[in-house]
Amino acid sequence: MSQTPELVVRGLHVAVEGKSILKGLDFEVARGEVHALMGPNGSGKSTFANTLMGHPRYQVTAGEILFKGRNVLEMQPDERSRAGLFMAFQYPVAIPGVSIANFLRTALNARLAPPETNGTGTVPARRGIAPKEFRALLREKMALLRMDEAVATRYLNDGFSGGEKKRAEILQMAVLKPEIAILDETDSGLDIDALRVVADGVNALAGPDMGVLIITHYQRILNYIKPHFVHVMVDGRIQISGGPELALELESRGYDWVREQQEEVETP
Ligand SMILES: Nc1ncnc2c1ncn2[C@@H]1O[C@H](COP(=O)(O)OP(=O)(O)OP(=O)(O)O)[C@@H](O)[C@H]1O
Ligand SMILES: [Mg+2]
């Protein structure tokens, strides 16, 4: 795990609609590492995740993000995804009319195929995965996540329960095999059995080839997915970092002591 970091964030400042949210964030993830990011509501965790994925609303006002040595801030969201960044959303959106199977096949083909530019924009260069091969892959991943195969024909997230949406996000991750996966509160809304299934799924996919950033409010998921590092974000910065024991400490002590440390640093 002492490899060069895949993802490097330095001095990141981000504003949303003119309001400064991230205020000098430093962060690194290497392949095979599992990081947990915790912190109070509104501290900027989702802002960080959205910024990594290139959401247009988030303006980077200073700092840099490098992924495999490339300047992420110069890449479009689809390029970031093809390069191997993935995010499971805190609030997945429904896409009525697009089945899970079609959505995933299209996304996988885009991820696999080097893009080509034609007159109208960037398109995948080749036909992509054969339908039969794709069906086998999808079946395997759905089995891993103990999802009913019939779900594949349903429209993406349309009428899904909260927990079903979260599981569909992890299915997406399983099919796309990213190099860095960001899970934004994937554990919220999962029942105890689903939490275990999702955690087992993440563990099966993690390992040496994938770095994971788990954004969560609860220590519970970290019982199943063991983080190497735990970070606490307060007011747009990582205030404190540690090992898994830090998550346990937060569970029992809350965030006030972390905030107090910040005040001590800021008031000379
Ligand atoms: N699109 C937006 N428009 C306006 N304000 C925003 C937007 N996105 C984020 N913010 C503001 O940025 C701050 C940080 O929000 P963010 O969603 O990153 O917090 P969070 O740490 O993910 O919180 P939670 O734990 O509740 O998910 C909040 O004050 C939020 O209102
Ligand atoms: Mg959030």
Task: Give the key terms.
268 residues; alpha/beta; Rossmann fold; six-stranded mixed β-sheet; four-stranded antiparallel β-sheet; 9 helices; globular; binds adenosine-5'-triphosphate; binds magnesium ion
Bound molecules: adenosine-5'-triphosphate, magnesium ion
Q: In the residues, how many domains can be counted?
A: 1
Our measurement of the CA-to-CA distance between the termini, rounded to an integer number of angstroms, reads 37 Å
Low-confidence stretches: none
The fourth-level CATH homologous superfamily is P-loop containing nucleotide triphosphate hydrolases
Mean pLDDT: 91
Order of secondary-structure elements? EEEHEEHEEHEEHEHEHEHEEHH
CATH class: Alpha Beta
**How large is the radius of gyration?**
19 Å
CATH topology: Rossmann fold
Strand runs, count: 14
Taking the sheet with the most strands, its summary is: 6 strands, mixed
Overall CATH architecture: 3-Layer(aba) Sandwich
Strand content: 25-35%
Tally the helices: what do you get? 9
Global outline: globular
Q: What is the strand arrangement across the widest sheet?
A: 6-11-12-3-13-14
Share in helix: 25-40%
The computed structural class is alpha/beta
